[in-house]
Design goal:
Oligomer: homodimer
Largest sheet of chain A: 6 strands, mixed
Largest interface: A-B, 76 and 76 residues
Number of domains of chain A: 3
Number of strands of chain A: 16
CATH class of the largest domain in chain A: Alpha Beta
Distance between the termini of chain A: 44 Å
Number of helices of chain A: 16
Shape of chain A: globular
């Protein structure tokens, strides 16, 4: 059993890098989970010949299933349906019932809009309802219908034609999977399980060495496709495997936990944001930030429902603000400098008392590019997380540039809050 | 004169969507600016046959220049150099001087690292120094050298081989442009100018109609490649043109300014963040945010040097915090609700007074998904920007989901601050 698939993203804006493509990676992941081997993801412009050429190339590469995104709009340079009809050996024909259904959507959308050109809208509507004969229609989420088109010649790829906007493409992809045409192709593949683990406090190179050593000790990774990647200062391990390798995955995960239990904070894929939200539940939190300038508060309030436990925060960027708003003693600033564990601690305490919150977090650091010194180079960040009677203080040196230093500081803070709420007095690892 | 180019990104992690590719769009933009027509950007896995097949496909498509990224590491599945040698008809050979230069880098990088396997490092080092005979070497920024490889057969594409990490690829790309081999290919194309304009307060559909009408009035767009795209709630117009069309671009820009001068805030491509930073210069700013939870403060402090004018901010998510920290009168909350221009105004004033700042900004809104009502549905955001004696208040209904509503709120706030500092009492447009 094996299934080769490919993704073709169309659109000059995407090709020229003006807008970034989210569909290629998304569809590719979904195809992989369904057990397909993804041969390639191609981005082509809105040019008939280029699109046709890449489809023929993929057919020659023994690809069984092609997913396209984009090129389904109402204008003449939206030519995916037409090119796919040609590629699959089908004629284009007007589907009048579809034309009517799209019109109903267009009427609803244009209600109350000024200066609507009804004639142009009718023409675009008709164009979108002209589709390859015999294709399955995926009902529009926006105004463009998607298609599933089987080739009239045996052995040639089946094509799933989806619109470009991700919020349309994603539900229509799910609809495509329910068509008989796609099911019959997917029957050639065996779906894969995907599991995640997350670690914090271990360098990627050290984990890579550890994985090599685990293999050396006779633990079999057979049937596991393991990928590690660095995200926001954490390591994510993604593993794909067929159902029959589930036991192997359990051994692998157990061996990893035995070796790195201290830094493996998420054996089940939960993010630190999930964990902190769960741990807070009925406890409240407040922040006092200098170098991160509100990013930690923004991260905490990212989640729907966070108003239940986030009371608020102070952004005390200027030293005057640290004194006036957070009540940091001027002597503390003078004696230890604004970037010090002492000041971070005072900020955490201020966050707790000012907002009457259970947990307070303080962050102060040198985000750069200026402001570094020999003792406190760019990337030096002092953090403090405090509860009634207990606290964790930490100084870290973060790599990268300003934006990365600021983002990673919030990740360190989240882990300090997690550990504090789990009842610990430190964050393991480096 | 015409030059066809293509980009091939290699790497299973990129292909399967685990990490997102920044190189394809980046190189594609650069190629376009050099005047090339980009035929396609392809992502392929670390499989010899797939990479070779896509290179042959591009050669058959009359592509003159191919840029690859990735697959230059020290391990066996890094096979780009080898496949490209084959494709260009060249043998692989060890470059001993290069091997030595890479070793010097590796020695420096591994200094102080624990458990370094010198034998493995030597083997990887040698592998990276085995390159196609006669290729130009692009000196490593990390440890991997890049290559410029001309085909031994006339009429076949020249290949620029670059490593995957963007911080290595980008400087090495610039080095590649200086090689004689690349220069001779680029001589077939004419470089393009790229200009940006930005608008705020006009729907994309309305601008599209306006551009069509401009063409109807006899203004020629000949030689201009105009793209519009929505970014963070603003519209960006990117235009590419050859130098001889510079006059056409000036007329186009002038016609657009005559029609949309009220909402065309940036005729020169400056962002609203640039403008606000310039306008603030020696004036200070502070914020008081509810629904954006610190995102505006974070956006303002994104910029290096922002400590000169950002004093700080309050995140007053809970009503208790609005009262206690920002001094919002409880009656105001009771009478008008937390999401009201009255409360936004009180927050802006509190930001000014609490931080002793020249400009204060207040934001309060319903970011969703919960909390909406008939009168104040999700997306309703009230904002206020205040200076001594002058202010702009605004209520907007923003589209999209929580994250988008929060981000767009910060964009609206930035434009209110810009207009206030420019001496106006409103923000034009919708």
């Amino acid at each position: 059993m094996s299934l080769r698939a490919a993704v073709v993203v169309t659109g000059t804006e995407v090709l020229t890098g003006i807008i970034s493509d989210a569909n290629g990676p998304w569809v590719s992941q979904k195809l992989r989970e369904l057990g397909a081997t993804v041969a390639q993801v191609s981005v082509v412009g809105d040019r008939r010949d280029d699109l046709r050429a890449v489809l023929e190339f993929l057919a020659a590469q023994q690809v069984d299933l092609i997913v396209t995104s984009g090129g389904l709009g109402p204008t003449a340079d939206d030519l995916t349906a037409e090119v796919v009809a040609d590629f699959t050996g089908r004629n284009m024909a007007l589907d009048e019932a579809l034309e009517q259904r799209i019109w109903t959507i267009l009427e609803r959308l244009s209600r109350g809009m000024r200066g609507v050109d009804e004639q142009a809208m009718r023409a675009g509507n008709r164009k979108q309802a002209i589709i390859p004969e015999g294709a399955d229609i995926l009902e529009p989420v926006g105004t463009a219908p998607g298609l599933v088109v089987q080739s009239t010649q045996p052995g040639r790829p089946t094509v799933i034609v989806l619109p470009g906007p991700p919020r349309e493409l994603q539900p229509m992809w799910r609809e495509a999977l329910n068509t008989e045409a796609v099911r019959s192709v997917l029957a050639r593949a065996e779906p894969l399980e995907r599991r995640f683990m997350r670690l914090f406090g271990i360098p990627e190179a050290e984990l890579a060495r550890s994985l090599r050593e685990l293999e050396g000790t006779g633990i079999s990774f057979d049937g596991l496709e393991v990928t590690t990647c660095l995200r926001r200062g954490e390591i994510e391990i993604a593993t794909l495997f067929r159902l029959q390798a589930a036991e192997t995955y359990r051994s692998f995960a157990a061996a990893l936990a035995a070796r790195h239990g201290d830094v493996l904070f998420s054996p089940d894929g939960k993010t630190v944001d999930d964990k902190v939200a769960e741990l807070l539940s009925d406890r409240s939190i407040a922040t006092a930030e200098s170098c991160t300038g509100g990013m930690l508060a923004a991260r905490l309030t990212d989640r729907p429902g966070s108003s239940a436990y986030v009371f608020g925060g102070l952004v005390v960027y200027a030293n005057e603000a640290k004194i006036a708003l957070a009540g940091v003693p001027p002597e503390l600033l003078a004696d230890h400098g604004a970037v010090s564990v002492q000041v971070a601690g005072a900020l955490a305490d201020a966050a707790r008392t000012r907002f009457d919150a259970a947990v307070g977090v303080g962050i102060t650091g040198v985000a750069g590019p200026g402001g570094g010194s020999e003792n406190k180079p760019v990337g030096t960040v002092c953090l403090s997380a405090a509860l009634e009677g207990r606290r964790i203080d930490r100084t870290v040196r973060l790599p990268g540039e300003r934006a990365m230093i600021r983002e990673r500081s919030t990740t360190v803070a989240m882990h300090m809050v997690r550990r504090l709420l789990e009842g610990h007095d430190d964050v393991p690892g480096r």
